[in-house]
Amino acid sequence: MGTWDTGPFDNDTAADFANALDEAEPEAREALIRGVLIRTIDATGYLTEAEEAVAAAALIAAQCPGGEPVDMSYGPETPMPVFPSDLRVLADEALARIVGDEDGPASNWVDPEDWKQWRAILTRLRAVLAPPPPSIALFDVQS
To answer: Which tens digit of pLDDT belongs to each residue from 25-59?
Structure first.
């Protein structure tokens, strides 16, 4: 993996994924993102699309309250569609799978500080992607 920094699009594979999103028809972008997330969740053995899944999760998180904009230097140049809320859950599940895979992307970092920074980015993405708690009161207690 050609990696130059710890951001979601700061590696060759994620940058190629951004290019694929740019080249896809607007209505096909959601399917590309959904596909990479599902394949990462369902993967057995080595997570071959982990870098793409992190990039996809970052795109989804950017549309959530508290989400950060995606770095446009290496991320997609074209606007993404508004993603359905179910992609938040898939993105969180994919990131959980990636974080839990000790033989996967986490093992690729040479500098332990880079690994810590990358892990912190994934933790922030997961915090943004987590569904908000229900706001409906279960009981209306009056004194």
So the answer is: 999 999 999 999 999 999 998 899 999 999 999 99
Q: Which amino acid is at 96?
A: A
Q: How many Cα atoms sit within 13 Å of 105 on the Cβ side?
A: 30
Token reading at 24 = 């896809």
Which residues, including other chains, have CB under 8 Å from residue 110's CB and lie 6 or more apart? none
3-state secondary structure of 17: helix
Instruction: Provide the residue type at 76 as one letter.
Output: P
Q: Is the pTM of this model over 0.85?
A: yes
Element (H, E) at 79: none
Q: Residues near 91 by Cβ (< 8 Å), separated by ≥ 6? A: 37, 53, 56, 57, 60, 61, 125, 129
